[in-house]
Amino acid sequence: MTIDATSAAAATSAASSAATDQTKLTGDLNRFLTLLVTQLQNQDPLEPLDANQFTSQLVQFASVEQQINQNSNLEKLLAAQSESALSAATGYLGATVEASGTALPLQNGSASASFTLSQAAKQAIAVVRDSSGKTVFSQAVETTAGSHAFHWDGRTTAGGKAGDGIYSLNIVAQSRSSGDALTVKQTWSGQVTGVGNGTSGVQLRIGDASVALANVISVGRPAGAAAD
Asked: Which residues, 6+ apart, have CB-to-CB distance to 200 below 8 Å?
């Protein structure tokens, strides 16, 4: 079970962004002051520089610096929140979570999913495919309306044994009345083996699969089990 280190990278990236802006502003300000001093040294005494102009520019530099400082503080706050969320997510390690979708992670030779038929089907077939899209297993499943469980032990149609990894499950069902394909709601489940940060927030890793914490439907543990 692992904790992804990407949160530290995200915090570093946020800090470096503000630092880069601050460095650029400092360079621009130094060049402006150098130019200003040069102009003052070489100004025509009869037509001195307008103090209002460079005072206005200095005010603009101060305003930009204030915005950069505000952005830096906001980035630090977001990074802290991200680290806090990641730390809290470690409580999911070892738990079994359920999420919507067609993913089917095979862990220790076992995979579990569920599907829901809005109406009774004429026939329904479960099709398991590997990461290349090749069908490795298929079988007829329940056709009555309602929710049904699906379990796969990794055995292939050819009689072999599939290795642990990420597969996909599609339930192909046909309506009894019209013969048209039915829309089937599917969920999948597996044990959380790692946590990390992604573009959509905290991600839970289930073997080779991953799911955003926000997309988790339910969480469970065997009786008497405790979080690591």
From this structure: 212, 214
- Higher-confidence residue of 77 and 155: namely 155
What average pLDDT does range 87-96 have in this prediction? Answer: 82
Closest CA to 219 of 201, 200, 206: 206
Query: Is residue 227, in this structure, part of any structural domain at all?
Result: no
Does residue 182 lie within any of the structural domains?
yes
The pLDDT tens digits for 109-152 are 999 999 999 999 999 999 999 999 999 999 999 999 999 999 99
The C-alpha atoms of residue 142 and residue 121 are separated, in whole angstroms, by 9
Cα–Cα distance list, 15 to 22, 126, 150, 184 (Å): 11, 49, 47, 46
Q: Which domain holds residue 131?
A: 96-220
- For the chain, report the end-to-end CA distance as a whole number of angstroms: 9
